[in-house]
């Protein structure tokens, strides 16, 4: 109730209750400001969609198999998978209730594994395309700085290695990286380097680790 809140944290506030309120607010709430309110000179975001062709036969076959397994479910993902013209296996129609429950649980676990593998596979097949675009971008010294977000660590590693990104003193392709293994201290150092060092042109960023509370405007 508002009256109780005012009584405890305003009218009879003490160092203890202020500390309690601070812990409660910082532990359960995040206050975010809009870009238009703090970076008014930044240009509007531009979105571009690029469709990729899965070029290797192995990847094509694995995608088809995974989508085939996914089609039997319900929801939007099953609808996407259903766009592939494949004959569906017949669902279970009879049997003891306990066996049906076990089958449904096994089916849920299978779908989780399928979705996890699809998620990983979609990242892997993008690597050659993104790497080629990054190399072309690096060849042009008039380009500014670039932030690349990815979910999987192996995608970040592959982009670093295939594009020759390095922080050796003689390197012309310096970069920063923030992912789940980056310590808070190193994280801030990486941000400062990207913001202030003109020789650092690329930021490789994990979506989970660098999706919020990171300011990279250089």
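^ Assign residues to that structure.
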């Amino acid at each position: 109730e508002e009256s109780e809140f005012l009584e405890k944290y305003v009218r009879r506030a003490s160092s203890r209750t202020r500390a309690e309120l601070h812990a409660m607010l910082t532990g359960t709430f995040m206050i975010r400001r809009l870009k238009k309110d703090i970076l008014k000179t930044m240009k509007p975001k531009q979105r571009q969609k690029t469709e990729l062709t899965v070029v290797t036969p192995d990847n094509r076959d694995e995608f088809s198999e995974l989508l085939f397994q996914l089609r039997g479910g319900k929801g939007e993902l099953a609808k996407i998978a259903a766009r592939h013209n494949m004959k569906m296996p017949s669902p279970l129609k009879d049997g003891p209730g306990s066996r049906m429950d076990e089958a449904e649980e096994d089916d849920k676990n299978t779908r989780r594994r399928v979705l996890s593998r699809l998620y990983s596979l979609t990242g892997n097949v993008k690597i050659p395309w993104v790497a080629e675009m990054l190399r072309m971008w690096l060849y042009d010294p008039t380009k500014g700085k670039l932030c690349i977000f990815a979910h999987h660590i192996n995608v970040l590693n592959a982009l670093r290695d295939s594009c020759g990104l390095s922080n050796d003193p003689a390197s012309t392709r310096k970069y920063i990286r923030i992912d789940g293994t980056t310590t808070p201290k190193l994280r801030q150092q990486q941000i400062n380097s990207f913001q202030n060092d003109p020789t650092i042109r690329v930021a490789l960023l994990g979506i989970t680790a660098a999706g919020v509370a990171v300011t990279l405007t250089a």
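The radius of gyration is 25 Å.
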